[in-house]
Amino acid sequence: MPAVDLKTYLAATMRLFRVPEDPDLSRAQFDAFSKQIPLLYFILISNTIAVAYTYVNVAPDWLTMIVPSVLTLIAGLRTFWWLRQRGLVRSDADILRNLRATNWMTLPIGAGFTIWSFALYPYGDPFAKSQVAFYMAVTVIGCIFSLMHLRSAALIVTLIVDVPYVLFFWATGEPTLKAIAVNNLLVSGAMVTVLFIYYRDFADLVASRKSLLTQQAATQALSDENFRLANLDSLTELPNRRRFFAELSSAFTEAERRHVRVAVGIIDLDGFKPINDNYGHSVGDRVLIEAGRRVREVCEGFGPQRVEFARLGGDEFGLVVCGDPEDADLMRLGQRIGEQVKLPYQLDTAHTGLSCSIGFALYPRSATTSEALYECADYALYHAKRHLRGRTVIFSSELEAEIRSRGVIENLLRTSDFGAEMELVFQPIVDAMSEHTAGFETLARWHSPRLGWVSPADFIPAAERIGLIRPLTQVLLTRALATAKTWPDHIRLSFNLSAHDVCAAEGILPLIAIIEKSGLPPHRIDFEITETAVTFDFVRAQQSIATLKAMGCGISLDDFGTGYSSLSHVHRLPLDKIKVDRSFVADINENPVSHKIIKSLAGLCDDMEIACVVEGVETRAQLDTLRRLGCDFIQGYYFAKPMPGSAIDEYLAKERERLDGDAARAAKVVA
């Protein structure tokens, strides 16, 4: 045999007697051993005691008492050690070290029992000698079975016990013992063959299990990643709406179980839509990412409560505040979030500014289900955006009463007869210098058979929410145009349009048809559109406004200064008038800031050749100041409160008398 082949053969042979360095296989062998080794030692100890007992009166005491006691003690200690290994967590290196120790301990232990058997054999009669032969044969077979998971140890035991056994009993010359030796050799050979087959199958099973676990781990990792992606907002990498409601449900259940408070918050970014319109969606996306990052940092650093934060969609974010929060905690959290969101956003050449409105609802005070709690938070946000923009609102009993009232209004609106229950009143719009009435603004009033008079501030938003604003607008416009047709030709009609009117998918075709059918010249009609309506869908609003303008209608931007004030909208829309909100007029003579704002707006209108209309004028002092500032038209209680259409002729007649009298007195003074 060549030297290389011999070396390879010897190396392969030596590997049979070593514990393989396979962590998974070693761990499986160790687990199996911890269950089987005690059985091996039980067989060894019981058989040893039986043989020693047979020879106790014929052999020396050191062979029948001392040596078997030592061997039994060693076997017992090893049994105790292996019993302690069950359930223990060990490292791969520790397991390999113990298996190697077990592997090589089989050599001295096997040799010890073999030598003791051979030393005891000469003292017995034929029956006792046969018992020794039987003891060694049966014990080695039991050991091979028990050591089958560790092939190297089983082979060592076979060599240490079986080879001397066969040689020893063959050398006795006794035919029976020689036959036993040959039989034991054949059985041991068969056992070794079974050992190789079993060990190979065991190793393959461990390998296939490892492969299966690897596949399962890969599948689990893929499942975890899919779960993560399914619960992650792709833009901001925040938890998404699905994850938010799962967290809310879990937190709510825990709060119910522990009888503690939990809060839901909804954040809406004020002024985000104009950023998208003015700078494009790429800038808008970056603003959303940055705003989300800021709010997340606030939530992560807020204690002692735990705050879960997610993006619900668009520019809306959600909060779940755990840890038994109180109102003061929620207000403090809302303030911190608001402060961070308000910080400037600098993106390339664009400098953007945002604020945010936040609505909170607290369990168990506000609601008894997670869904109702979210709805309460949503209504608190709605209230904040309408009345306390940029602030934090916590759902309260007052808001709960509003919800009930809102529900009643919505239900009654659905069954109301607009033609019979809606009434129109008209407020004069007066030329600031001549004090001649230039037109009337149409205002709607609802007289519900059940509720009585309902404010427009209540029923107009309700009609928008339930999708009735467009049919309501059409009924009111038809009646307003019919009334305006009876006025003098120089008097204009001013009519308010909702965001849903100018941004509807089907456009303003129904309004155009009503105008054409009315017979009132379009140039006598001004449509008032709020900044909020314009920003609702700027592109569609721009198209609708351009169509109305092409017909000859005038366009006024209403409540300027209270919405998403963006001068780019003023420049990009074909406006005829800007109406300055009444909030700047109330203290114009006391508050320098209000004075400067109206002065700036009047200057802007003059530069752009747009008429400036100021609402809410109630005193002569306010009128005189607005005249000096260059405002063109005035509207307010100083001249008249809103009046029914039947009172307009009388109002105009009295105005003519007043102005004629003023002119006569002025002429007399000059004379």
**Globular, elongated, flat, extended or rod-shaped: what is the shape?**
rod-shaped
Gyration radius over CA: 48 Å
Q: Main sheet: which strands, in order across?
A: 8-9-11-12-13-14-15-16
* CATH fold name of the largest domain: TIM Barrel
What structural class results from the helix and strand content?
A: alpha/beta
How would a crystallographer describe the biggest sheet? Answer: 8 strands, mixed, barrel
Please state the second-level CATH architecture of the largest domain. Alpha-Beta Barrel
* Helicity range: 55-70%
> Which CATH top level class of the largest domain fits?
Alpha Beta
Unreliable parts:
none
- Tell me the CATH superfamily of the largest domain: EAL domain
What is the terminal separation in angstroms? 147 Å
Report the strand count: 17
Q: Count helical runs.
A: 24
Strand content: 5-15%
Count of spatially separate domains:
3
Mean pLDDT equals 81
3D structure, described in words:
The chain has 671 residues and is α/β, with parallel strands linked by helices. It has 3 domains: 3-213, no CATH class; 241-407, Reverse transcriptase/Diguanylate cyclase domain (Alpha-Beta Plaits); 416-456 and 469-670, EAL domain (TIM Barrel, Alpha-Beta Barrel). The protein contains 24 helices and 17 strands.
Highlighted features:
alpha/beta, TIM Barrel, Alpha-Beta Plaits, eight-stranded mixed barrel, five-stranded mixed β-sheet, 24 helices, 17 strands, 15% strand, 671 residues
